[in-house]
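Bug #77: duplicate submission created two jobs. Keeping one. Sequence:
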Amino acid sequence: MFDLKGKVALVTGGNGGIGLGMARGLASAGARVVVAARNAEKSRAAAEELARYGSEPVVIAVDVADEQSVQSLARETVARCGRLDILVNNAGTNIRKPPQTYAAEEWHRVLDTNLTSAFLCSRAAYEPMKIAGGGKIINVGSMMSIFGASFAAPYGASKGGLVQLTKSLAVAWARDDIQVNAVLPGWIDTDLTRTARQQVEGLHESVLRRTPAGRWGVIEDFAGVAVFLASAASDFVTGAVITVDGGYSVQG
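Kept job's structure:
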């Protein structure tokens, strides 16, 4: 029930971090992965790695915040791979500063990259998935969907909105056999959080102290949950929000 052979998975931001961790899982389960991102060099390197799992990965450049670019991404995916079964909305960004200091442009940049992009990509994937007889959408949220952070107002707003978008799409598309779920990562060792450790004093020690698992997460921790949510194993799971945080969010 975890077999993804013959399936096509589109992963935005799939050339690094959590997106690459999920792409590895999907490829290892047999899916053909489309790596959609802006950095062509990183995408090619990711595709070369994913090819070791036996599939034929595809690289497509995209600006996930641009409506026309996203529509082109969906069309090219179907044209090159014949179908679209799985979408991972992983592309994201953050700007860390006190809320009173954000410019409107910075607010919109974070919201457009993290939230609007997920709507645009999901909308573009809907028709190909419906034609295929169903599909799976995995939205990558954040524990900032649950907690507030003084240095991440637009990021938290975008990720909270992503959870509600997940639930709305799950209800709207359930009869089309399209399951839509969200994953909320905790503190994961990625380029984004390495920058955070430089910008937020004491963050590393705080994360280790609060996380019951006693460590930062790694991108490999997302391979299994991606396969579960992309496979037949989760056919009756939709609108769910799954934390992958080593127990961080259950601490008082």
